[in-house]
Design goal:
Blueprint (H helix, E strand, L loop, with lengths): L4 E2 H8 L3 H9 L7 E2 L5 E3 L1 H15 L4 H8 L6 H34 L6 H4 L7 H5 L3 H4 L4 H11 L4 E5 L12 E5 L3 H5 L8 E2 L13 E7 L8 H11 E9 L11 H6 L3 H4 L6 H8 L2 E4 L2 E2 L20 H5 L2 H6 L1 H17 L1 H5 L8 E2 L3 E5 L1
Parallel strand pairs: 4-5, 4-7, 5-6, 7-8
Antiparallel strand pairs: 1-3, 2-3, 8-12, 9-12, 10-11
Helix pairs in contact: 1-2, 3-4, 3-5, 11-14
Length: 371
């Protein structure tokens, strides 16, 4: 039994109680797969590896049901789950580090008897947002094939493509010569080894000559830019055509299109205060706008992805990869999640949104700008 460990030994090594391990066994989360010579349950190396994953997710605040889904996902292996765990841990670390630095700067300012502006107080939610949330992206953010098909069709016959605000590389076409631009080191570090070469730069100041590329693309990133119009004009300068996947706030009552912002998170409207209109963005690059419906089973965990799967918004790992929750703040987030949980349990959500059950896709304001 040198390659197996008793329940007591594993409990000591993991820093948990034997009772906890028995509970995990009872609910099927981690079941010892071996027996000692005396007939007692024992953990194999694979069992210990699974327990390590379970305990890591638990210490990140995940519920037992969420943990079970994560470690039991047949589409992932041990390496993929380790990378996911690393991303979540990096996100927590970066968020904490950013807040500590912001607090230190404010303490220094106050110690000098100087006032602190609202912009300075909220700095952690501003320019470094992707550095704060970026580590959570591998958990739920990936290419949605049906949205990708629309984007790639819009690229037309372009051979050279500049992907601005490229993040971890989702939606980059594999059959073109792609160059990526991404200002966040956290995001760049998570790009696959075979991804397109990536330049550290901001959309508003692209380090390329005029008309260097056939087309410049930007996917779900414009709302993070300090100056969206300036960034779009830069894209138009360096490329002969432009394709942008973004959000429309022109339609009256636009925030009521999605039940989550309508019923649970009215603060969403303030997140996009100052964000240019779809018409303004289109005018800046001479583009037309086309609606992009969100499939009910959207693979990319963007903010609107789970419109027919409301339980997903109760999961911390899902919300952490959405910048909206960081921007509205923990109080609004906790209130929204609590009320949604209550309405799902009581059936009120289903009563309010019964018309969604038969929809395969929904227009929630996502738009493709094509110039």
């Amino acid at each position: 039994m040198n390659d197996h460990w008793t329940v007591g030994r594993v409990a000591d090594l993991a820093g948990v109680s034997v009772r906890t391990l028995h509970h995990y066994d009872e609910i099927g989360l981690v079941r010892p797969s071996a027996r000692t010579s005396a007939g007692y349950r024992a953990y194999s190396a694979a069992d210990v590896e699974r327990l390590r994953e379970v305990l890591a997710y638990r210490r990140l605040g995940f519920g037992l049901r969420e943990v079970g889904e994560l470690v039991g996902d047949p589409s992932t292996d041990a390496v993929a789950r380790l990378r996911q765990l690393r991303g979540l841990l990096v996100e927590r670390r970066d968020r904490t580090d950013a807040m500590v630095r912001a607090i230190d700067r404010e303490l220094e300012t106050r110690a000098k008897g100087l006032s602190v502006t609202p912009e300075e107080q909220l700095e952690v939610l501003g320019a470094r947002l992707y550095d704060v949330i970026g580590g959570a992206y591998p958990a739920t953010r990936r290419t949605e094939p049906r949205i990708a098909a629309r984007i790639w069709e819009a690229l037309g016959d372009a051979e050279t493509v500049l992907n601005v605000g490229a993040g971890t590389g989702s939606y980059e076409p594999a059959d073109r010569d792609v160059t990526a631009v991404e200002p966040s080191e956290v995001m760049r570090s998570q790009r696959p080894a075979d991804a397109a070469p990536c330049v550290a730069a901001a959309a508003e100041s692209l380090p390329f000559e005029d008309d260097s590329y056939d087309v410049a693309m930007a996917v779900s990133t414009v709302h993070h830019w300090a100056d969206p119009i300036a960034g779009l004009r830069e894209m138009r300068r360096v490329a002969r055509r432009v394709v942008v996947f973004t959000f429309d706030t022109d339609e009256p009552g636009w925030q009521d299109r999605f039940w989550l912002t309508r019923d649970y998170l009215p603060e969403f409207a303030s997140v996009l205060e100052g964000f240019p209109s779809i018409a303004g963005m289109g005018d800046a690059i001479g583009a037309r706008a086309e609606p992009v419906p969100v499939p009910w089973d959207c693979a990319d965990g963007l903010f609107e992805a789970y419109w027919r799967r409301p339980e997903a918004y109760l999961e911390d790992r899902v919300r952490r990869a959405m910048s909206v929750w960081t921007r509205v703040g923990p109080e609004a987030e906790q209130r929204a999640v609590r009320r949604l949980d209550e309405d799902l349990a009581s059936g009120r959500w289903a009563e309010r949104n019964n018309e969604l059950v038969d929809l395969d896709a929904a227009d929630l304001g996502l738009r493709l700008l094509i110039a």
